[in-house]
Design a protein that fits this description.
This protein has 6 helices and 12 strands. It is α/β, with parallel strands linked by helices. The strands form 3 sheets. Strands 2-1-3-4-12-11-10 form a 7-stranded mixed β-sheet. The chain has a 3-stranded mixed β-sheet with strand order 5-6-9. The two termini are about 10 Å apart.
Length: about 200
C-alpha cells in the first residue's frame, strides 16, 4: 500500500485540520459519518471535540458498532483529545450515557488539564518521533491515569501520560493537527502501511 485511505470521523470537532495533516503525511484523507463510508477506509482518526457529543452522534449515525467491530478486528485508529477518550476502555468520570469505542487498555480522566481558559502549548518528547519535541496543544485535554500491560506509553507531560499506543491504536491528549507539524500523523500513516503489509503476507 503506497497511499492509504484514512478517514476522519466527521461528526464534531476539528475534522478539517486532520484531513489537511493526513494529506500532508501522504495519505488520502476522507470524512467519515456513516457505516458505508467507514467500510471504504483503511484506518480512522477520531478528532478532538466534545467526547460525550461525539459518542452520542456516533450512535445516532449508526457508526458506533461498526467502528467497535473494526477496531477489534485490528483496523488502525488514532484519537486526539476527545478521540483519546473514545479509545479508552474505561473513563474515570464518564458523563451519563457516554460510551467509548475502546481499543486501548487505559483509564482516562476527562478535562484533566483544566477548562478551556486553561488551555496551553508545551513541547512533548514522543517516542518514535525523531528530531525536536512535538509542540502539543492541550485544550480541555484528558490525561491517562493508568495503562495495562500491553499499552506502550509514548509521552508524558507534567508527570502525566499524554500519548499511548496499543497495537494498531494510537492516542494523544494533545492536538498535533493544530500546529503544522505533521510528524504524529506521519507516524500513524506508517502504522497503517505496516498493518496493510502484514495483512498481505
Amino acid at each position: 500500500m503506497n497511499t492509504p485511505v484514512i478517514g476522519v470521523l466527521a461528526l464534531q470537532g476539528d475534522v478539517r485540520e486532520h484531513l489537511i495533516a493526513l494529506a500532508a503525511a501522504d495519505a488520502v484523507a476522507r470524512p467519515v459519518r456513516r457505516p458505508e463510508e467507514l467500510a471504504e477506509v483503511d484506518a480512522l482518526v477520531l478528532p478532538g471535540g466534545e467526547s460525550t457529543t461525539i459518542s452520542k452522534l456516533a450512535v445516532l449515525f449508526g457508526v458506533m458498532e461498526p467502528l467497535r467491530a473494526r477496531v477489534r478486528a485490528g483496523m488502525p485508529v488514532y484519537g486526539t483529545c476527545a478521540g483519546m477518550i473514545m479509545l479508552a476502555d474505561k473513563i474515570l468520570d464518564p458523563r451519563s450515557g457516554q460510551e467509548t469505542v475502546g481499543g486501548i487498555d487505559m483509564i482516562v480522566r476527562r478535562n484533566a488539564f483544566g477548562r478551556q481558559n486553561e488551555s496551553f502549548e508545551a513541547a512533548v518528547d514522543v517516542r518514535g518521533i525523531t528530531g525536536d519535541p512535538v509542540e502539543g496543544v492541550f485544550i480541555r485535554a484528558p490525561w491517562v491515569e493508568s495503562v495495562g500491560a500491553d499499552t506502550e506509553v509514548l509521552a508524558e507531560h507534567g508527570g502525566h501520560i499524554v500519548a499511548v499506543r496499543q497495537g494498531n491504536a494510537l492516542a494523544t491528549s494533545f492536538h498535533p493537527e493544530l500546529t503544522g507539524d505533521h510528524r504524529v500523523h506521519a507516524l500513524f500513516v506508517d502504522m497503517v502501511r505496516a498493518n496493510a503489509t502484514a495483512q498481505s503476507l
